[in-house]
Amino acid sequence: MLICLSLSSAAAGQAPPPNGGDFSQGSSITKVPENVILVKGAWASASDSVTPLPEVGKLDSQAYSNPYFGFRLDLPAGWAQKYEGPPPSDSGYYVLAQLRPVQTGPDRPRGTLLIAAQDLFFSTTRATDPLQLIDYTRDHLQADYRVEKPPREVTVAGRTFVRFDYVSPVAGLHWTMLAIQIRCHVVEFVLTSADTRLVERLARGLDGMKLADSDTPVCLANYATPGNILHREDPVFSEHKYNPIPVRVIIDRDGKVRHIHFLSAFPAQSQALTTALMQWRFKPYLRNGQAVEVETGILFGRPPQGAL
């Protein structure tokens, strides 16, 4: 992914550029709004606009909700999001929401609440559950961080989470991570503050989160294997042949692909893959003798940098 910072206005009194090349006098220049980062190239997209996506949550002044993961979290009073997160990474990491107090002061300590998700199909850590992913985080803390409480299972909102607490003595900041597995993703709630009382208050506030028991497809890693594929068509890429293209697909009860989610792909790649994948046929997946929908991941192209 190429991130370009655009400087759109010329210095006062600067002579116009010469004709020709990329500096033609006849070219049209569009001024980019302030505080904008242009992201060009690979991007997240989907084959339809109806099926919920991990990155498409709803945030208002009262709550953050995510139909894909099936949860709703009421926001602490006076907290909001200033900046939206980046698009999904090619290793399947999502920043779903970044929250902090709108106003701070002596009686309003600073803190942040990060809601993120890691797709276990494409994680470079090879973790298969929240405990393994948090253990990886603990084992790779930098030298100036210290573990306060090791990873352990706790109950939050009636569900089993993994909690991990660590601190940076130099910065005077404390982190609490609370993670749960949903649809082969580890959804993380990361609380940060210099005030441990605020962190604990935020952690207790997660007990009010509503987690739905939604009817979702069976989530299976490595389902797109020769033994399960009855027919396949390979995509033909005219350009951008070597970047990683992580793709999640939902396979219906008849073994047909009904939904494709591109975590990171160039538009031409998305088009080529959609044309090919819609022709794939899988063995129907049976659970208790009944065919059910399956959600799985397929990685096209080169694995993400740093993959183990």
Would you write up a description of this structure?
- This protein has 308 residues and is mostly beta strands.
- The protein folds into two domains: 52-211, Mog1/PsbP, alpha/beta/alpha sandwich (Protein Transport Mog1p, Chain A, 3-Layer(aba) Sandwich); 218-300, TonB (TolA/TonB C-terminal domain, 2-Layer Sandwich).
- It is 10% helix and 38% strand.
- The strands form six sheets. The protein has a seven-stranded antiparallel β-sheet with strand order 7-8-9-13-12-11-10, with helices on both faces. The chain has a five-stranded mixed β-sheet with strand order 3-18-17-22-15. A four-stranded antiparallel β-sheet has the order 4-5-6-14, with no helix packed on it.
- It is globular, with a radius of gyration of 23 Å.
Sheet-strand content, in percent, reads 35-45%
**CATH domain class name of the largest domain:** Alpha Beta
Query: What's the story with the biggest beta sheet?
Result: 7 strands, antiparallel
H/E element sequence: EEEEEEEEEHEEEEHEEEEEHEEEE
What are the main properties of this structure?
308 residues, mainly beta, Protein Transport Mog1p, Chain A, TolA/TonB C-terminal domain, 2 domains, 5-stranded mixed sheet, 10% helix, globular, disordered N terminus
List the helices and strands and how they pair.
Elements: E1 2-4, E2 38-40, E3 43-46, E4 58-59, E5 63-66, E6 71-74, E7 79-80, E8 93-101, E9 112-119, H1 130-139, E10 146-156, E11 159-168, E12 173-182, E13 185-193, H2 196-205, E14 210-211, E15 218-219, E16 229-231, E17 245-251, E18 257-265, H3 267-277, E19 281-282, E20 285-287, E21 290-292, E22 294-300
Parallel strand pairs: 15-22
Antiparallel strand pairs: 1-2, 3-18, 4-5, 5-6, 6-14, 7-8, 8-9, 9-13, 10-11, 11-12, 12-13, 16-19, 17-18, 17-22, 20-21
